[in-house]
């Protein structure tokens, strides 16, 4: 791991794995309780469709949507960061801190832990803004 691109690649894979894990959490709860909202899924396991989603599944879906709102800008800023040659020394701490913050945010979201979820969210946002500042300084 020598270049900002190496760190961006690593963090991108870790964030993908984290988001995939949220999907697994949803499946785990649905299959474990044999409760599916989609009629075809319920029918596949011989159950009647549920009127509403399980709370744990809904919470995981909200965490996943929150990731989409935050990780997508990370990917975009990360690519621009690498392409512009913004501070190589700051790349690893920024990319890694963002990845850790998003992971902690997800754990806290699923476990319903406040204020830790908000603190993790804020840490990730600070990283995004700092990445943007470094890109602007480079330009």
UniProtKB/TrEMBL annotation:
It catalyses: RX + glutathione = an S-substituted glutathione + a halide anion + H(+). GO terms for cellular component: membrane. It is a multi-pass membrane protein. It holds the Pfam family MAPEG. Its EC number is 2.5.1.18. One of its GO terms (molecular function) is glutathione transferase activity. It is found in: Endoplasmic reticulum membrane. The chain crosses the membrane at residues 6-25, 74-98, 118-136. Homotrimer; The trimer binds only one molecule of glutathione. Conjugation of reduced glutathione to a wide number of exogenous and endogenous hydrophobic electrophiles. This is Microsomal glutathione S-transferase 1. It comes from Sinimarinibacterium flocculans.
